[in-house]
Amino acid sequence: MTRNDRTVFRQTSEGSDWVSDGNDVAVQAVYPGLQVGLNSSADLLQTARNTVTQLNNWHSDNSPATLYAAAAMAGYNPSTLMEELHAEATAYSYPNMAVHHYGGGVENLNVTTSGLDEMLLQSVQHDIKVFPSWPAASNAKFGGLLAYGNFLVSSSMRNNVVEYARITSQSGGKLTFTNPWPGETMEYYANGVHKGTLSGTTIKLNTSVGETNTVDTLDAKGGGNYGVTGLCCGLSGPQAAVRTGEQAHTGDASLMYSGYANGGSYDHAYMQVYGFNGAPLTVRGDTTLRYWVFLQSDATTPWVSAGSDDSTCVAVDLIFTCGSDLRDSGATDESGTGMHPADQCGRLTLDAWNHVTVILGAVKAGQAISKILVGYDRPGATGGHRGYIDDLSIG
Fold first, then answer.
1. C-beta separation of 267 from 228 below 8 A
2. Tell me: the pLDDT tens digits for 264-312?
3. CA-CA distance, 140 to 120, in Å (whole number)?
4. Rounded distance, CA 203 to CA 219, Å?
5. DSSP-assigned letter for residue 131
6. Rounded to 5 degrees, what angle do the CA atoms 310, 313, 318 make?
7. Spatial distance between the Cα atoms of 218 and 272, rounded to a whole number of angstroms
8. Spatial distance between the Cα atoms of 349 and 312, rounded to a whole number of angstroms
9. How many CB atoms lie within 10 A of CB 380?
10. For the chain, which end, N or C, has fewer CB atoms within 10 Å of the first or last residue's CB respectively?
């Protein structure tokens, strides 16, 4: 039917067309009816979104118990959903966080739980999608959410990029999921063993009971590149490359890193420098990461501005086959500084070789390393950064 010049769902096919009574029956074909999802036609999804807008029942009577989940499943504006959920938590809840409205009862327990669930993970059309309706510039992580097909799904998003997806099959059978990195190739692991790469928009795998499948990408899982361009000389992006005859801690070669940050809120560059190619390195309780790093200022390179310590915002990062990383693990170096590159800013000495030691076994014992990256991370930075890494060892 048409309401205020917008096509919407009728409340019933025969009888009442639209009833403004604080309920959201008109959109319940989406949730909990499960007749509409993000794989539905564009016209059907637009009708569902129009219906949500015309209902406008975010905080009235019985509607919120199902409206948020329905809106997320229809691809409604995620920022609006988060704003309205924030209002639920601050203006429509008791001190014990129980949501209350004039109507309803126990179903109000569903307001924020299913609303957030459908924003983080959807699988209604047997196609698993991670962060399908999540607001931009909002980091999030979830673990063990149940998807249709009896799959347990975990994932993380940071700086608008999905970092990994980990899916455990509890019953075996066909697994279908949407590529979280459109147009990119994924690295695929089954029970921690590298199985190769996957590509395409929709991925289909056969699974066995208890099998855990993890996917990430060389770029997105590492954190990728956001707001960092080439330092000089026509370079289009950040660098991590072996240089000979420049700076070296031992020998005559070392790994040079460089880039130019452009003042963005999430400026960072994570670059893979080594992959274990299907033979991941297992971390023991005493396994230690060691490396030397030379952080350049304007005294040793013309491409870093005077007074800048941006070159210090760098650290070696590790990616594990479970989909996690070193930078967000809580690991610290020998001085107690976090191993996130942003935590390293200003901590080490410029224009000198600094030794960094990290006991990996303290936080990652039993896990397996699949990749080594060099990460630069300094939100809001403007200007160049450059340095060298040498004598890296894990053992």
1. yes
2. 877 888 888 888 866 889 999 999 999 999 999 999 999 999 999 999 9
3. 9
4. 19
5. S
6. 150
7. 7
8. 8
9. 11
10. C
